[in-house]
């Protein structure tokens, strides 16, 4: 009995995120929960991202006890662009495999939790003697769409090169157009080779998916009751929530001063605008956004990461001039403490690119969405907000492909005036909070995961 108890406390798990911000954050939150239940976590970033995470932490104690921050090289040279993931993703297995395998063996790792976008590591981990779980950074609906890609090809909806063949919506909850299938929308029609590579990569890595004993999902049974039954070994334990202080896993330092600015705004008035970690706007689009926010007549908090806008010389959007012009009405920050912003009573709505983390965070904190998706699973997440939960509205692009200032102004006014949206947002917030509360479905699944990892 004593031996069994000792073994249980020695559960050591490796967590392997894909080297992008929207992957490191939720896996860090999962790790924090596991560590809270006595599981020792080896969190393996690429060396480049490891340095960002450690460097941007406001407090050195932000990494909870029980989490060990480790790193391996990503295979790039010092002059290479580590943010251009599309370019080096194919070389990751060759760069990381040897070190990872050696770590699993030498650190006596019993389980590896592999980010779905790192599925090539499922086989490696199994070969090195570990049991494996997959972690989905996207919705259960998108995960099941992924597993169904061969069927969609068979049914003639698309071909093996990622060309859309079928018409009409794909029959799933939420409904999407074939062109919005994440691996298709990730590459434009002008990049057929990229599309082909995306689809082929999914088809190939899907084959090792059965190695995962469970698929851990940042969602809940109540939020995705149609999609989750399609994934027999899914373990939904979300929405994953960051603690209100000491967040970890961020690549940029959070601008905490915006919280004091929010404190000074009347309740339910602020438009929060953030496009996640990779979205960017060209100068024309940025100008329309800036004008639209001013036209809305509401205070706004806008996240503008370094390199968020493109263009050079005269074509460049003059951010400093804009900041000066809107001083007092709007605040621009480089990186926001997003979960704290969304839970702030001053925030009225979220203009979002609809990444899955942002989507879950908005639901959890009860904030309605204005959806501005670009690619990948963002269209599917938009469809959840607008067509299934009824908690959001789409921002439509005009004939130039631009979201115009008038569109922003009118949709903000509509969203904030609609009583139906308000009440559905409140309902889904309760649902999401209920899932993660003690006794809730997600909380129960977290306990199941902990006990599985201790076996
Ligand atoms: N985020 C943040 N501050 C910001 C913008 C984003 O903390 O100013 C966080 C956000 O809370 C979320 C993550 O970055 O957890 C972005 O993930 P998401 O899936 O929404 O988008 P991605 O970056 O993967 O496109």
UniProtKB/TrEMBL annotation:
One of its GO terms (molecular function) is UDP-glucosyltransferase activity. Pfam families: Glyco_transf_N, UDPGT. Residues 13-47 form the Glycosyltransferase N-terminal domain. The keyword Transport does not apply. It comes from the Eukaryota. The keyword Lipoprotein does not apply. Keywords: Transferase. InterPro entries: Glyco_transf_N, UDP_glucos_trans. PANTHER family: UDP-GLYCOSYLTRANSFERASE 72B1, UDP-GLYCOSYLTRANSFERASE 83A1. Belongs to the UDP-glycosyltransferase family. This is Glycosyltransferase N-terminal domain-containing protein. It comes from Hordeum vulgare subsp. vulgare.
């Amino acid at each position: 009995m004593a031996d069994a108890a000792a073994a249980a406390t020695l559960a050591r798990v490796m967590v392997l995120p894909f080297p992008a911000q929207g992957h490191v954050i939720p896996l860090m939150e999962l790790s924090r929960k596991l560590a809270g239940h006595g599981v020792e976590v080896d969190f393996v970033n690429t060396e480049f991202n490891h340095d960002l995470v450690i460097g941007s932490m406001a407090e050195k104690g932000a990494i909870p006890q029980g989490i060990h921050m480790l790193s391996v090289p990503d295979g790039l040279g010092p002059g290479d662009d580590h943010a251009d993931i599309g370019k080096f993703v194919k070389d990751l297995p060759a760069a990381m495999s040897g070190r990872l395998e050696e770590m699993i063996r030498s650190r006596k790792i019993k389980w590896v939790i592999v980010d779905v976008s790192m599925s090539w590591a499922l086989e490696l981990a199994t070969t090195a003697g570990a049991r494996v779980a997959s972690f989905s950074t996207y919705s259960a609906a998108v995960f099941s769409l992924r597993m169904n890609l061969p069927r969609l090809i068979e049914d003639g909806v698309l071909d093996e090169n990622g060309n859309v063949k079928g018409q009409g919506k794909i029959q799933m909850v939420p409904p999407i157009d074939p062109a919005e299938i994440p691996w298709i929308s990730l590459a434009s029609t002008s990049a057929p080779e990229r599309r082909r590579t995306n689809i082929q990569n999914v088809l190939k890595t899907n084959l090792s998916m059965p190695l995962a004993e469970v698929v851990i999902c940042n969602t809940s049974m109540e939020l995705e009751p149609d999609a989750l039954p399609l994934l027999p070994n899914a373990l939904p334990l979300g929405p994953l929530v960051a603690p209100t202080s000491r967040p970890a896993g961020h690549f940029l330092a959070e601008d905490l001063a915006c919280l004091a600015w929010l404190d000074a705004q009347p309740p339910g008035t602020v438009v929060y605008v953030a496009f996640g970690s990779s979205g960017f706007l060209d100068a024309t689009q940025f100008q329309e956004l800036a004008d639209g926010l001013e036209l809305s007549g509401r205070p706004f908090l806008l996240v503008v990461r370094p390199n968020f806008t493109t263009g050079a010389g005269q074509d460049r959007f003059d951010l400093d001039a804009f900041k000066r012009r809107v001083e007092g009405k709007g605040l621009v920050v480089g990186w926001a403490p997003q979960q704290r912003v969304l839970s702030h009573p001053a925030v009225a709505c979220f203009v979002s690119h609809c990444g899955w983390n942002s989507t879950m965070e908005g639901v959890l904190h009860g904030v309605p969405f204005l959806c501005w998706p670009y690619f990948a699973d963002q269209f599917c997440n938009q469809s959840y907000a607008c067509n299934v939960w009824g908690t959001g509205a789409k921002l439509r692009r005009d004939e130039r492909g631009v979201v115009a200032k008038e569109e922003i102004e009118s949709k903000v006014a509509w969203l904030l005036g609609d009583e139906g949206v308000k009440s559905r947002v409140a309902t889904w917030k309760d649902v999401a909070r209920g899932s993660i509360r003690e006794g809730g479905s997600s909380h129960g699944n977290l306990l199941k995961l902990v006990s599985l990892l201790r076996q």
